[in-house]
Amino acid sequence: MSACLQDIADFGLRSIGMGEFRLPTGEMTLCRQVVLIGSGMIWNIYFGVLALAIGFWLATGLAVAKASRNPRVRRPAEAFVFVFRGSPLFIQFFVAYQAFVLLPREGVELFGATLPTAWLTRAWAGALIVLILNTAAYSAEIFHGALRNVPKGDLEAADAYGMSGWSRFRRIVWPTTLRLAWPAYTNEAIFLFHATTLVFFSSFPAFRQQGDALYYASYIVDKTFNPFVAYPIAAGYFILLTLCLIGIFGVVNRRLNRHLPGAATRLKYRPNLIR
Could you tell me what percentage of the chain is helix, strand and coil, using 3-state DSSP and rounding each to the nearest 5? Predict the structure, then answer.
């Protein structure tokens, strides 16, 4: 027990630079494996939370742009969604890394100021940008579909109350869009957190061997030559994370549907087997 507590103290926050500097070279006990992979989950949660938060608002703008009647607004949004939905996320990581590497190391001059570019080749920034753009494209398509299915009766009621423009969008259109899109958006959020494991396979390097859950799981497998312990541990962490996401998004779903009679229905998770 004392050895396990020592492992928690040494490696519990190693992925963010706190605790033992070197990777463990001794015996890989079950506790040590659980602690190391759990430490790497911090980065997976970091990628997922920030990509989901920023991508949500970017997807909102893209969905509204796709619904615009102005082709100058609609076509760029359609092109963005088509490119990022039409290409594999894995390839997007490689293309983005190669593009970031080509940028001048000393920075880019913009309006008389020098913008640093070296940080774009780090996983914490470059991989995050790719995840944001990817989830924004998928989420925009979900929101756009819901936006087109807002009941005409709701829009007519808004017109009857004298609502127009921003007021109608904020109070009628967007809440209804979220209510219709939320179950599908929940699936997208879950997939996004699972997709953070692809950062390990991308070209973006881990800083000072401080990687994500799959980075530590792979290291453990290389040390123990046994993939049937480390990888199931990583899978267990993601299953727990999925359950937390279903719970959180279920609370939001009930909040969005609170005004409907008999709307306190449970949110069902239908995994995407192929994407």
Answer: 75, 0, 25
CATH number 1.10.3720.10 given to 40-105+112-256: yes
Q: Give the residue extent of every domain in the chain.
A: 40-105+112-256
pLDDT in tens, the chain (275 residues): 788 999 899 888 988 888 888 888 888 999 999 999 999 999 999 999 999 999 999 999 999 999 999 999 999 999 999 999 999 999 999 999 999 988 887 777 777 677 788 888 888 889 999 999 999 999 999 999 999 999 988 888 888 888 878 888 888 899 999 999 999 999 999 999 999 999 988 878 776 667 899 999 999 999 999 999 999 999 999 999 999 999 999 999 999 988 777 655 556 656 665 55
Q: 3-state SS of 219-251?
A: HHHHHHCCHHHHHHHHHHHHHHHHHHHHHHHHH
**By CB neighbour count within 10 A (0-12 exposed, 13-18 middle, 19+ buried), where does 211 fall?**
buried
| Residue 237 near residue 156 (C-beta atoms within 8 A) | no
Specify whether the CB–CB gap between 161 and 211 falls below 8 A. Answer: no
Are 81 and 140 in contact by the 8 Å Cβ rule? The answer is yes
The residues facing 110 across adjacent strands are 113
Q: Residue 111: left if φ>0, alpha if ψ -120 to 50, beta else—which one?
A: left
Question: Rounded CA gap, 218 and 190, in Å?
Answer: 23
- Characterise 165 by phi-psi region: left (phi > 0), alpha (psi -120 to 50), beta (else): left
